[in-house]
Amino acid sequence: MPAVPGGLRLLFPLPRPAFQPLPLGQRIPDTPHAVSCSLPTLQAVCGYEEKDPAVTRHLTSGYPRFVVHPYARQLAAHCLRSEPALAGRLLWLTSSAAMARNLVARLGGAPSARLYENSGLHGVAHAADDAALATQAKTYLQNFGGFLSSREAEDHLVRLGVLPAAAAEPSCTGDAAAEIRRHLLPALTGARPEDLFLANCGMNAIQ
């Protein structure tokens, strides 16, 4: 009988998978801006939920509210290296100037928290050794969907010469909003196109 996490044993054989499992951590779809990755086994799912390093070190992407995209991390690191004023600080890049202002307000006027702005980039920097402030900042941005998007981070990395070019992606040449609504409507019984309001991040849609 096959074993499952927790020491339990199944009393019946597991069915053969309908699809070939993807390797642990592979992006779904396999593009730089994917927001899902493969957890191909129950053990991997449990390891993810329990933050087992044997699983989490393989994760290459994740839902933007919970995982700061590698491009955003790379861009923040570039800013920290390139700007002397940011020495000894931690930088949170945000989706907008308004989000950065809201984050500073949420941090309650912490002496080390300062707004950051440079060439269209916005964020908040604070002392790198203040773990409590970092946790508070990350929690706020997570709950409000305020992290800089992967595509905007990519555009800045290209502008700064850190990346040679943006990754090629299929794009909509017509009305993108109408195309999004066309795909969503079949799953929303009774909804009309005008009932759907689009937002750039999930949690921003309910603010």
Description:
By secondary structure, the protein is α+β, with helices and mostly antiparallel strands. The N and C termini lie far apart (49 Å). A hairpin with a 7-residue loop joins strand 1 (27-28) and strand 2 (36-37). The longest helix has 14 residues, at 131-144. It is globular, with a radius of gyration of 21 Å. Strands 3-5-4 form a 3-stranded antiparallel beta sheet, with helices on both faces. Helix content is 33%, strand content 10%.
Task: Give the helix level as a range of percent.
Answer: 25-40%
Molecular shape: globular
Strand order of the largest sheet: 3-5-4
N- and C-termini, Cα separation: 49 Å
Structural Rg: 21 Å
Count the DSSP helices.
Answer: 7
Contiguous low-pLDDT stretches (5 residues minimum) are none
- Class by SSE composition: alpha+beta
Q: What's the average pLDDT? A: 87
**Helix-strand pattern, N to C?**
EEHHHEHEEHHH
Instruction: Please give the largest β-sheet.
Output: 3 strands, antiparallel
Number of strands: 5
Kindly estimate the percentage of residues that lie in beta strands according to DSSP: 5-15%
Key terms for this structure?
10% strand, 207 residues, two-stranded antiparallel ribbon, single chain
